[in-house]
Amino acid sequence: MKAPGGRGFTALRLRMVEEQLKPRGISDPDVIRAMLKVPRHLFVKPSQRASAYDDCALPIGPDQSISQPYIVGLMLQALELSRHDRVLEIGTGSGYGAALLAELVAEVYSLEIDPSLSEKSRKLLSRLGYKNAHCIHGDGFLGLPEEGPFDRIVLSAAPQNIPRALLRQLKSGGRMVLPVGVEAQVLVLLEKTPEGLKSSELGMVRFVKMKGEG
């Protein structure tokens, strides 16, 4: 199948939002705006560009994938982002999530354990003009304490348990969204309050296993 041209991709983004996101409850206007703007097709392999806006995840390399658009939107909406936020993303992957975050917040620090993937995403994000998205090669289990604490933290790979180092790097009043588990994974929202940690489940998901020293 031949990939559509520029206007065709714009139409596909609109259809993605109208058919995949809004009917499932993605209503945050800033999230919608970002997902209408960011060219998702540039974050997948050229051979997959015609499928970039389909309702599914797509492989981007060995044990790596770009998540289903709805799940990306769900995670962004659950974070309740604001323009002044500093966000830590664990698992840069294709760089698509970092691009969306860069549209929504002040600074994004995106950690990727695969150095070649991190560099590829850094170059693409730079070419697209995202000066507030910082791609860093590193172990997501350790986080980025030298840049913390963070207003929000989001993981696009699944640890078996919630990494304690990341909890320490989350500000009081902050939010973290992550998939947790091995075979049966649950998307979890954590809120760090003065009274303690509040947890809620957002549904069953399937992400790649988180790699690192955890």
Would you tell me which CATH topology of the domain at 60-205 applies?
Rossmann fold
| H and E order | HHEEHEHEHEEHEEE
**Principal-axis shape:** globular
SS content category: alpha/beta
Note the main sheet. 7 strands, mixed
Distance between the termini: 41 Å
Quickly give the CATH architecture of the domain at 60-205.
3-Layer(aba) Sandwich
State the low-pLDDT regions, or none.
Answer: none
- How much beta, percentage-wise? 25-35%
Helix content, binned percent: 25-40%
Instruction: Give the averaged pLDDT, no decimals.
Output: 94
CATH class of the domain at 60-205: Alpha Beta
Q: State the CATH superfamily name of the domain at 60-205.
A: Vaccinia Virus protein VP39
Please tell me how large the radius of gyration is: 16 Å
Widest sheet: strand order?
5-4-3-6-7-8-9
**Count of DSSP E strands?**
9
H/I helix tally: 6
Q: What does this entry look like structurally?
A:
- The chain has a domain at 60-205: Rossmann fold.
- 29% of the residues lie in helices and 28% in strands.
- The chain contains 6 helices and 9 strands, in the order ααββαβαβαββαβββ.
- Strands 5-4-3-6-7-8-9 form a 7-stranded mixed beta sheet. A two-stranded antiparallel sheet has the order 1-2.
- Strand 6 (150-155), helix 6 and strand 7 form a beta-alpha-beta unit.
- The longest helix has 16 residues, at 6-21.
- The termini are far apart.
